[in-house]
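Support request, priority: normal
Reporter: lab tech (M.K.)
Component: structure prediction queue

Hi team, I submitted a job for Histidine kinase from Paenibacillus tyrfis yesterday, and the status page still shows it as pending. I've pasted the exact input below so you can check whether something in the sequence is tripping the parser. The sequence length should be 534 residues. Please let me know if I need to resubmit or if it's stuck on your end.
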Amino acid sequence: MLHLFVDMLERVGFLIALAFVFSRSRWMRSYMSYQGEQAHQWRFIVFFSLYAILGTYSGVTVTPYSYQPAPWIGEVSPTAAIANSRSIGVVIAGLLGGVKSGLIVGVIAGLHRYSLGGFVAVACMLAPVAQGIMAGLCRNAVKRRFRNAASAKPAFAVGLIAEAVQMGLILLLAKPWNEALGLVSLIGIPQVVANGIGVSLFFIVYHTMESEEDRIGTEHARKALHIADLTMPLWRLDFDRAVREVARTLHEETKAVGAYFYKNDMVWAKAGRKTPYWVDLPMEMQNKKLIGRFRLFYERKQEDSPSRRRMLITLARLISQQYAFVEAERQGQLLTDAEIRSLQAQMNPHFLFNVLNTVKSFIRTKPEEARQLITHLSKFLRKNMNGSSKTLVSVRDELELVTSYLSLTKARLGDQLEFVTDIDEAALDCRIPPFTIQPLVENAIVHGLQNIGRPGIIRLDVKREADGGQYRARITVEDNGTGMCLGVAEVADEHAGVALRNIVQRLSYHYGTEKPLQIDSTPGKGTKVSFWVR
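Reply from support: The job had stalled in the queue. We restarted it manually and it finished. Here are the results:
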């Protein structure tokens, strides 16, 4: 009996090692955590059915009074039986997958055992079915303790009871009864204890593996937070410099041989060197818009363990959230700057004096127009105050602000200013940052039409056009003023100054374009500024 027990433990050890290897797969691990998906249930059932069949084949041939170790069992004589570890696969299937999985695996394992023959074939066919159902019913008891080493105790108890059920069925159904009694006396204790140990060992080994991975995962989380702590202040730099510094930090802290930043499939920053093995850390905004990705290069292919995968996902999210937070803060400051400049324009003494003087002169000669100017001034001030509290407004609202501003300005300039519009109604509901069109119109009047010696014309076009397979609104502000001969970057500085750079930054933030403003200018003929919005 002792020798049989030792042989059984050897086979149990082989089966547990095999189960441990397969438990590294994602779908198997999901069942180990009692979260198995229905889509993968067939894999689970096939694996443990084969596992139970292997437990039968790797068993020991016995007669009621002796046993003979063999490397593989092909068939069983009418007077023999098998001391085996089949119940380990059936019981584990029930404990992890529930009654349905335990029943199916038990039926398959039982039919296979019946096909091998022997005087206990019927009892050994029915035993796995009962074991699978019983293990499924005990599933919740083990599940509650799964993350604790104590899960081995109920698992051991279920394994013992499952084997005891099989011994009872052999005594009840096998004929002749005296031979069944002799068989149970020989294999009962070794098989019951060995298979009970096998079931509990499976949970102990997996718990040990989970504890080690938790430790590694904790270390990975600490590393990710440390890197995030180092990179947070870097995002307050200019974007190009920020990604260079973040790439350098990732290169130093992640043990990667290289860290590159890609945007639009182009390298923007790099530290170290490239290799054939890499992982990507995508940077996304809250609307899932991809900004770019940091690519970490390694000397060899990295292990795709769950804890490491979680660490990389967490690190990518932290970097994305850092950038989004700093960029939102920067956008808030830009909006505040735009609001301040707008209020300064409202309270500009020359602007107000000119408007009030115009109203004063119209009160006697053109009272109706004076009332309209007061209305436009009221709308202009109200729109400015309302827009300062929003990050996006409709094109319709922005055009109302522009109309009020131009009405006030044209009343003063008279025939020296002409305003022409071509508005597509379908584009009026598109969203744009506030104080976007009005500063462009103001710049065109102040910088473009000043001292040109002829009537100035401001043309505003809002068109819904196809661009890259999408319909977007194209907004164009054009004047017939002095024009410029400078490059685009210099034009932005000279023609619009701080206000224009503010518009460029806010449009880039909301629409993700590098150069949102297209500026075309010809000396002596005028300037045209246009941009796309959605």
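The two ends are 81 Å apart (CA to CA). The first strand starts at residue 60 and ends at 62. Let us know if anything else looks off. Ticket resolved.
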